[in-house]
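debug: dumping io for the single-chain case to check the tokenizer round-trip. Nothing else runs in this session.
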Amino acid sequence: ALTLTPMLSSKILKQKEKHSWFYNFSEPYFKSLEKLYKNSLDSFMKKRWIAFLIMFISIIGIYIISSNVQSELAPIEDRGEIRIDCKMPEGTSYEAMDKYIMNAVNVLQDSIKEIDALISLTGGGNRGSNGGFIRLTLTDANTRVRSQQEIAEEITQLMNGLNDAKTFVIQSQSISTRRGGLPVSYVIQAANFEKLHEVVPKFLEAAQDDPTFGNVDVNLKFSKPEIVVEINRTKARQLGISALDIAQTLQLAYSGQRFGYFVMNGKQYQVIGQVYKEDRNMPINLASLYVRNNRNELIQIDNLITMKERSSPPELYRYNRYVSATVSASLAPGKTIEDGINAMDKIADKVLDDSFSTSLEGASKDFVESSSSLLFTFALALILIYLILSAQFESFRDPFIIMFTVPMAIAGALFSLWYFNQTLNIFSQIGQIMLIGLVTKNGILIVEFANQKKAQGLKVVDAVKEAARLRLRPILMTSLSTILGTLPIALALGAGSEARVSMGIAIIGGLIFATVLTLFVIPAIYSYFSDKKKEVSNIA
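debug: decoded output
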């Protein structure tokens, strides 16, 4: 801009005696616009106190609208990928889980015509035999009528019709997090597991009844069936049997311990000690085992033990050294991560007492961290721009006047997001940060030219009115070019552009509001705060 443009202008632009047809066609319209603006500004400056009312309304509007605009980490892009996590009750066999997965696969293939590829897995990893997942790859977005979101909603309805397992339909996030998982992950911390055992079912029930969430689950489950074996040590001692003998007998019968290998026909096989499957499916089968005493006699183990069935958690969890349980939830249609976190906080206030503490995990934690980081970035951008302008103008007053453009731009951006039903996310927040630099440029043009006119002897009001009239075209040209350049983003043109729509809408809405209001508000503010001395800053 400072080197190439002047050089090209000197070579390409030629002085002509006659203007082009486009100039002759458009100039009357620009003249009429300048005249209309001049008359409107003259009328506005007679009641210039209205500028402070506009600023007050803008600030109040920022507070009101921001509380009514939904917030999230990032909108969902149509990447054509959907994952379905399935979980059956603890103790479910691999065969039962696999049967459910295959049934779900058949339902999806019959109902969802947009499926291009499908992968399913039963068990594996840390899921256990009662867990599995299905991953769908959809056809290209340009070749299907429905969006990924619409397909995911139908899949949710289909999976809810299969009552045997709890399912979570998960779409790929626009911004992948290292934590992954469901959108809302709420951690409950307590001093001991007994207190968690008492409140987790109540918390889970309240979350399931909340319309903010789709499906809700908790990692700490007290539903894993197990058998507690109590040894009658006195009787066992009388029969010449130790507790170790009984424990080793149970281990050999049910643990599947590997004793060694043997080779047959050139292949190596494992030797595993275990009773037949049909003899170890029921708790009563345990009583039919025999244990050998120190006199080499076989004693039926049923005479030495007492069995009790109970439920316990398959795993125990800790978070920041406290025992914990993480409640995870998918969101209902139209709800965002912020809605989910707020709903969880309200449930915690009702269900948990002061001895509990809460925290966030996964995408929820990323959302809160990114929000605070962007707020700091926004404040830092304001401070840096103000300091740079102060150095250029050699004044703290003129940059202060210019910064009045920012609240109007932010109010316009938030109103546009609310009007077009967009969310406040990392992209729209970046757009608002960009607005700081874009809209202050208009204020710089007016304030600098007003300082020059004031140095030439004009009064403050006359100087700023003349500066605003002379800078009308550059302000409109730069703003219009920026708006048109951002328009493809707002119209969601291009692959994966859905997530960036909010950025385009925030920039365009903020620019339109700020440009129109700047042309009236900044001259009025300048007339109140400008130094009465006739001087020109170093920007000229």
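debug: round-trip ok. The CA atoms of residues 393 and 494 lie 42 Å apart.
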